[in-house]
Design brief:
3 helices
Length: about 90
């Protein structure tokens, strides 16, 4: 099935693509919140990771569903790790 294109030549977003992109952004926010908490508790490496997550999130092309899905999976793994570490304090 070929992607539909707008008059600008860019593929049009489907509703589920928008939902996937929004979910990725929410996951990024969750990971960043965990990292801020870690930084406040003295983890010196958390700030650099937080900045990298922010940069990588902004770099994802929202029109590239495969990139959105791949980065979402990466964020989900990291969010789970950080959540488990926070629960085990």
């Amino acid at each position: 099935m070929a992607a539909e294109h707008s008059t600008t030549g860019r593929p049009t977003w489907l509703v589920n693509d928008v939902v996937a992109y929004d979910a990725m952004r929410e996951l990024s926010g969750s990971v960043q919140a965990h990292l801020l908490d870690r930084e406040r508790n003295g983890d010196r490496g958390a700030r650099a990771e937080l900045l990298e997550i922010r940069r990588a999130t902004l770099a994802v092309d929202g029109f590239d569903r495969a990139a959105v899905d791949a980065f979402s999976a990466q964020l989900q793994r990291r969010d789970t790790e950080l959540g488990q570490n926070a629960d085990g304090r």
